[in-house]
Amino acid sequence: MDTILEIKNLSFGYNDKLILDNINFEIKSGDYIGIVGPNGSGKSTLLKIVLGLLKPTKGSIKLFGQPMDSFKDWGKIGYVAQKAASFNTSFPATVEEVVAANLYPQLGLFKRIKKYHMEKVYEALELVGMKEYSKRLIGNLSGGQQQRVFIARTLVSSPQIIFLDEPTVGIDIQSQDNFYELLKNLNENMHITIVMISHDIGVITEKANRVACMGEKKLIVHDMNSNVPISKILSEVYGEKMNLLDHHH
Ligand SMILES: Nc1ncnc2c1ncn2[C@@H]1O[C@H](COP(=O)(O)OP(=O)(O)OP(=O)(O)O)[C@@H](O)[C@H]1O
Ligand SMILES: [Mg+2]
Which residues form a coiled coil (predicted)? Predict the structure, then answer.
């Protein structure tokens, strides 16, 4: 299997506060990775570093075998940010415009969107169940509907790997099920590598083939096919809080 992402001896801090301490992690083509961990443990930060939005203090990152500094193929990488959907109601763009905008990096700034590209836009909207909203203004949709449009926006550029930061926050249970079905389809049938941060440990342990647990500035990676129960690692990361979680379910 091809290695898509290779993180070696990665450390990072905001100002002087260390958030990630000597992290090593590899993502292979076809992986479905779940990233879990308490609030403030550094999950979003790790994603932002991998996406080149933050510079690591120490260590090296390779994307598709290339050192990050010389990596140019960003179209291969999709990203749905935490709380991506929080649009001002007066934002003057339609759903299809928001999705099509993510095609411009491929098209070049002055090339016109052709019929073929609009078909890709509608295909992506269809996948997330938002095709009939194409002409609506993005600002007039509900938060969950906006979130789905953002996922379509990521899909339209045909990425090979998609990073999602808590994508189902604010989405109702039925739509969450559809969404996880969609991710499964992307992963199994379209061979897109999935990396998802989520607090829904039940879903993550069910869907992902590997789970990365963030805690105490360290990352513990668990293979769901191994014989070790994941609860061991989760209680290491969450401590007492994990017992509280158990009570709730
Ligand atoms: N821009 C910033 N400047 C300074 N500190 C920051 C910044 N962004 C995040 N932090 C701090 O870094 C730590 C890690 O934040 P991060 O957003 O990566 O956590 P997280 O694991 O994604 O949490 P959550 O589950 O709440 O989304 C937190 O203590 C946070 O307060
Ligand atoms: Mg976060």
Answer: none
Q: Report CA(126)–ligand 1 centroid distance (Å).
A: 34
- Mind giving me the DSSP string for 28-69? ETT-EEEEE--TTSSHHHHHHHHTTSS--SEEEEEETTEEGG
Q: What would the pLDDT profile of 132-150 be if each residue is shown by its tens digit?
A: 999 999 988 888 888 889 9
DSSP 142: -
CA distance 152 to 186: 12
90 Cα: distance to centroid of ligand 1 (angstroms): 29
Distance (Å, whole) CA 118 – CA 125: 10
- Nearest CA, atom 13, ligand 1: 40
CATH of the domain at 209: 3.40.50.300
Among 54-63, 146-155, 235-244, whose mean pLDDT is lowest?
A: 235-244
Closest by CA to 236, choosing from 225, 220, 248, 212, is 220
Q: How many domains does the chain have?
A: 1
State which residues form the domain around 23. 3-248
SS3 content of the chain, % helix, strand, coil (to 5): 40, 25, 35
Take atom 10 of ligand 1 and give the residue whose Cα is closest. 14
